[in-house]
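Hello Y.,

Per our agreement to keep a running log of every chain we model this quarter, I'm adding this entry. I've kept the format consistent with earlier entries: sequence first, then predicted structure.
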Amino acid sequence: MMLLTILLVCMIYYQLVTRRFTASAIQATARIISNNRYQATKSSVFIPTIVFTDHNGQEITVDAGMSGASSLWRKTHYTGEELIILYEPSNPKNFIADSWYGRFVYTFKKAAVAILVIILAGLIFIILR
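Predicted structure for the entry above:
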């Protein structure tokens, strides 16, 4: 029950972080230039490579792995398709897909790090006790 409470608190906190990110982020249209398939043991992960132009006119090319644009079960985006993204003005390579899923992935990956730190701290506390 305690772990569930910690998870809930982390998710709420990082939902606020996501809102802060999206409030200052700039929206852009990215074009998918390739779609790479990575084979895991039992499934594949499809990660598109995108290109977009930032607010300074610089062309940015980056893999969209943890942005909410990748897919675990099938290729959801195809070469040449466009994708709306939100990117951080000071670091355009930090972006998410402008969708519910993209925002969820951003929130979850931030919360997952916090949860791991809390679990490790708890284990150390239990061991040293």
